[in-house]
Every structure is written in C-alpha cells, then in structure tokens.
C-alpha cells in the first residue's frame, strides 16, 4: 500500500514549489503512484484504465517487465558515459533503429526530448540546404524550446515572446473544419498542397530549408491529412531545395496500425525523422534519424549532447523495439484501432454530439459538437464527459483548438475488453449528458 504524502500535501507542495504554469487534468486532480501495463493506480489503490499513456509516451505498457529489466541491468553495469567514449548499447540501438527505417534513413543523433529532436532537425535542414525558411502546419505542436516554439502553432502554447525567425505556417490540411474540408479528399489534398507552393513562391526567397509535419496531429486534435497530401507537398518542397521532416513523436513505432511509421500511411519517405515519447516507453529519450548526407552537415563543428544516447535510455529503447515486435503490438494497434473506431462511428449514429471520429490505429480522436451542421464546438460537454469517464476509471486525453476533441492513444498493449469498456463508458456518458 501507498505510504507517501497525501494528495492534499502533494498538491500544496506542488503549488508552492513547482511551475505555476502547469496544466492539471480534472476538477479534482488525481495522483498516480503506480503503473502496470495499461493500468495506473492512485494513492487510495483505485485502478484506472490509462488510455492516454502519459501523453502517448507509454508505448508498450507501464513498467513493462522487459523494459524495466533492461534499465535495471544497465544501471547496474554502467549508468552514464558520453559519446566521447565508445559504448556498445547506444551503437547497437542506432543500428537497430536504422533497421526499422525505409530508404537511406540510417544515421541517428540521440537527444532527450521531442523539442530537442525538432530543434536539431531544423538545424540540420538549414545547414544542409543553405536556406533559412521552414514551413510548418497551423495547429501543429512540435515542442516548447525557443526554436520549436516557433514551429508550434496552437494558441494555448504560444507566449508573447520574440518568435523564432524564418518560420511560416501553411494551412492545416484539416478535413473537418478546414476551408477545403467539404471537397473530395483528392481535391482537398491538391488545394491544401497548393497553399504550400503559393507560400514558398510568394513569401520566401524561393528556396526553403524544410517542411515539417506530424503525420497525424497529436496535441492539435488527431487531425489526419487527406491521402496524397504529403506526397504533393514533399515534391513541392524538394523542388524548392528543401528537405522534408516527419515528426513521428506520437505516430511512430506501430501506433498507426497499418504501418510502423505514420508517414508510411501517406506513402512518402521523409529526409529527416524525429522521434520521442513512445521510443523510450517513459525514458527521457528522443532521436533524429536522417540520411548520411544530411547527417554530415553537422560535421562542420562538433555536435554534443551530454545525455543524448545515455546507456540506460538506450537500453530501454532497444527493449521497446524488441517488445513491439515480440508482442506484435503494431498488429494489435490495427485490430483494436479498428474495433474502437468502428465502435465510435456506431456511437455517432446514436449520439448527435459526436461530430467526427478520426485517426489511424491507436491514434484516435473524437470531436464533440453542439450542432452537427454548424460544427459548433462543445467544450463544456467534452469536459463533463471527460470527468464522468474518469469517475468510471477511464483516463483519456483532450485537445484540439477548442478543447472539444477526445484523444485516445493508449499503451499499445490494451485488450479487447479494455476497448469494450471504453465504448461502453462513452455510450453511457453520452446517454447521461
Ligand atoms: N512533437 C510532438 C508531435 C509532440 O506531441 C511533442 C510533445 N507533446 C513534442 C514534439 C515535444 O516533445 P517534448 O515534450 O518531449 O519536448
């Protein structure tokens, strides 16, 4: 049983000593003190089904025995070194990661967070191409460092500070609320991609360093671009001298079900891939993988990162890669993703409040509206159902520009019964609203 400070004591300490700018979920926050696979427990011993996985970070399960063992074994052997010495663990991890990549994407820089990974990708793109301008999507989330803060385009995360220079935001290829959402997917992908071309031709010197996108926007509310969008954009960007960056922080490692990487669902191969969160199942681990040519652009000077490629994080990352394959977690994402999506589409027939169900695999979103025709966001109802689900023992995420999108991105080890429980819970809550 839990014998630490009470939730009220922790709350008081946190209010006094931690950042006042933190976001806390739920009117009466919960305190999580233990985790096992898809479940977490609070200090009273109450169990919750965790369908948000510490914001899409617990990929293979809380405290997965194999990942935990890898960390403990490595902690007992060698806790830390840096890249000024050789170390087998990080080298092997780099090789194993390359084996999961398509094309000539085989050189990895290890860092500690998604923001750092995207910062490094921006630097590489600029050094490699000799251009400055970087294009990102509106509604994107790429991090909160000085550089990535410029890429991020969600008002909730924007501080009134000097914006990062050389960043442009193109139209978000939003198929629900965007200006071309009512077009056929093919026509919409052309029109959204046209905006990229138009922006490059009229708002830059004509050459760009990079285009970066999450294949499915995470924080922005699980927005899936129409098929063919990235193909068209990549062509345009490359024809203007730029490289294409896929932010796979949330969509990678099998989560999308049909493919190991999110970008594969759009049939493209990027030039640079950034990863974090699920790569380490909770370890402070992130990575940038690229081609040998682009990777060489940093050779002009020394690139260094104290904890980048830390042996403990690398050992955990290696274990994650193994577990995804051994436990066939990509297939599970496909199967349970379909079950959940079909189930939610069925609920949509019954509950007018469900405006759209979207996503791939276990990267799902449910947008709630007061009026289907007008698509009026329903943030209060979203908040209410969010609380009701928590009271039933189900944790999910919330996002989107209007705070009216449920984000369902559980650890990939959930079961059929867990999916049934969520569908039952949603049905019950919407019926009681
Ligand atoms: N990219 C994406 C798609 C993300 O969702 C996040 C985090 N929410 C980041 C980058 C930044 O990662 P970190 O918080 O590790 O810096």
From TrEMBL:
EC number of this enzyme: 2.6.1.44
Cofactor field: pyridoxal 5'-phosphate
Secretion signal, residue range per the UniProt entry: none
GO CC, one annotated term: mitochondrion
Enzyme class: transferase
Keyword terms, alphabetized: Aminotransferase, Mitochondrion, Pyridoxal phosphate, Transferase, Transit peptide
Protein's recorded name: alanine--glyoxylate transaminase
UniProt organism field: Acrasis kona
């Amino acid at each position: 049983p839990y014998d630490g400070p009470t939730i009220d004591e922790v709350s008081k300490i946190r209010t006094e000593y931690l950042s006042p700018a933190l976001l806390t979920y739920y009117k009466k926050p919960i305190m999580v003190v233990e985790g096992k696979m898809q479940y977490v427990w609070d200090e009273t011993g109450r169990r919750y089904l965790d369908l948000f996985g510490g914001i899409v970070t617990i990929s293979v399960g809380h405290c997965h025995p194999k990942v935990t063992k890898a960390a403990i074994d490595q902690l007992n052997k060698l806790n830390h070194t840096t890249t000024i010495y050789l170390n087998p663990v990080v080298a092997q991890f780099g090789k194993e990661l390359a084996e999961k990549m398509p094309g000539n994407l085989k050189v990895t820089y290890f860092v500690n967070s998604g923001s750092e990974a995207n910062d490094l990708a921006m630097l590489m793109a600029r050094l490699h191409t000799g251009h400055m301008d970087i294009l990102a999507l509106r509604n994107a989330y790429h991090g909160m460092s000085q550089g990535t803060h410029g890429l991020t385009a969600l008002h909730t995360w924007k501080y009134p500070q000097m914006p990062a220079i050389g960043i442009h935001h193109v139209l978000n290829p939003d198929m629900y609320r965007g200006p071309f959402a009512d077009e056929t997917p093919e026509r919409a992908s052309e029109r959204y991609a046209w905006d990229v071309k138009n922006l490059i031709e009229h708002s830059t010197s004509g050459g760009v360093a990079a285009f970066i996108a999450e294949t499915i926007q995470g924080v922005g509310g699980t927005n899936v671009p129409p098929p063919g969008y990235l193909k068209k954009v990549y062509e345009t960007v490359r024809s203007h001298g730029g490289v294409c960056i896929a932010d796979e922080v949330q969509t990678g490692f099998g989560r999308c079900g049909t493919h190991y990487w999110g970008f594969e669902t759009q049939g493209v191969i990027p030039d640079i891939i950034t990863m974090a969160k699920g790569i380490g199942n909770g370890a402070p681990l992130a990575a940038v993988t690229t081609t040998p040519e682009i990777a060489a652009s940093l050779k002009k000077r020394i690139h260094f990162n104290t904890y980048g490629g830390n042996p403990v994080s690398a050992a955990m990352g290696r274990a994650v890669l193994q577990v995804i394959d051994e436990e066939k977690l990509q297939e599970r994402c496909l199967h349970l993703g379909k079950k959940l999506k079909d189930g939610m589409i069925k609920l949509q027939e019954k509950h007018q409040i469900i405006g759209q169900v979207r996503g791939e695999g276990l990267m799902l979103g449910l947008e709630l509206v007061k009026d289907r025709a007008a698509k009026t966001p329903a943030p209060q109802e979203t908040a209410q159902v969010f609380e009701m689900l928590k009271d039933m023992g189900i944790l999910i995420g919330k996002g989107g520009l209007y705070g009216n999108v449920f984000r369902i991105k559980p650890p990939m080890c959930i079961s059929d019964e867990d999916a049934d429980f969520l569908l039952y819970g949603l049905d019950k809550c919407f019926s009681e609203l």
